[in-house]
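Reading a protein record of the kind used here takes only a little practice. The record below shows the convention in full.

——
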Amino acid sequence: MAAALGFLGVLLGAFGAHGLKGLLAENGTAAIWKTAVLYHLIHAVMMFLLADRKPFPAVAWWSFLAGIVIFSGSLYVLALTNQRWLGAITPIGGLAFLGGWFCLIAAGFRR
């Protein structure tokens, strides 16, 4: 799943830079697309690294997945549609990312 999300992140980054360049420029949302891809890829890599850890940090892993879907997903749709109300959903995904990182911090203190 993490590798597939990494693949998808690279694909969406390239598609945004080339196939959607005109639409994103017209909407003025190229920077939003880039932010979505950046957070998507960072957290896909983290999910990949976490998948091999023992014990498996499930809460952090699932939090990162939720963050990719909600944070990056809402930004992708916002960039494509220019529906600015979607920006109200994005912070929920940001909280999921923060929750995942907090779980990893807490796990470090437990050791």
In short: The CA atoms of residues 9 and 97 lie 16 Å apart. The radius of gyration is 15 Å. The chain has a mean pLDDT of 95.
